Amino acid sequence: KATAQDFDALYGIGEKLASNILKYRKILGGFSNINQLQEVYGVRAETFAKIKNQLRCDASSITKININEATYYEMKSHPYLRDKDWALAITKFRKSQDYEIKQLQDLLQIEGMNKEIYNKIVPYLRLQ
């Protein structure tokens, strides 16, 4: 929920970097944890280390993708689902499940899906 001004006030974060953070947050649909700030272009490890104790994350306002209804292209718009084309893998898996995934944990059946990937993408997914 932080504004550009809020980020700009932090050590090592200027106007441009604050803008990058807000853009990335929008593309993701929100941050699910503060460590994702390290994924933002321009956020250096030492800067993150100095500000991480000042950050809080409220994952309750994340925009989630309904994987039982979203098109391949809607899913592919999310950076985590674009990576290694998880959007396509989920679309194919949904088809194999008669177009209804019953539990998010079922995604672990997808070839190549492991707990690390699952835990990264699941905050952005919903079933309805």
Give keywords.
128 residues, two-stranded parallel ribbon, 7 helices, 2 strands, elongated
| Poorly predicted runs | none
User: Which series of helices and strands comes N to C?
Assistant: HHHEHHHHE
User: How much is the average pLDDT?
Assistant: 96
Number of strands: 2
Please tally the helical runs, counting DSSP H or I stretches of 4 or more residues.
Answer: 7
Structural class: mainly alpha
User: What would the principal axes of the Cα set say about the shape?
Assistant: elongated
Widest β-sheet, arrangement of strands: 1-2
Explain what you see.
- There is one protein chain.
- The protein is mainly alpha-helical and 128 residues long.
- It has seven helices and two strands, in the order αααβααααβ.
- It has a two-stranded parallel ribbon.
- The radius of gyration is 16 Å and the shape is elongated.
- The mean pLDDT is 96.
Question: What's the gist of this structure?
Answer:
This protein is mainly alpha-helical and 128 residues long.
Question: Topology, pairings included?
Answer:
Elements lengths: L3 H5 L6 H14 L16 H7 L13 E2 L5 H5 L2 H4 L3 H11 L18 H7 L3 E2 L2
Parallel strand pairs: 1-2
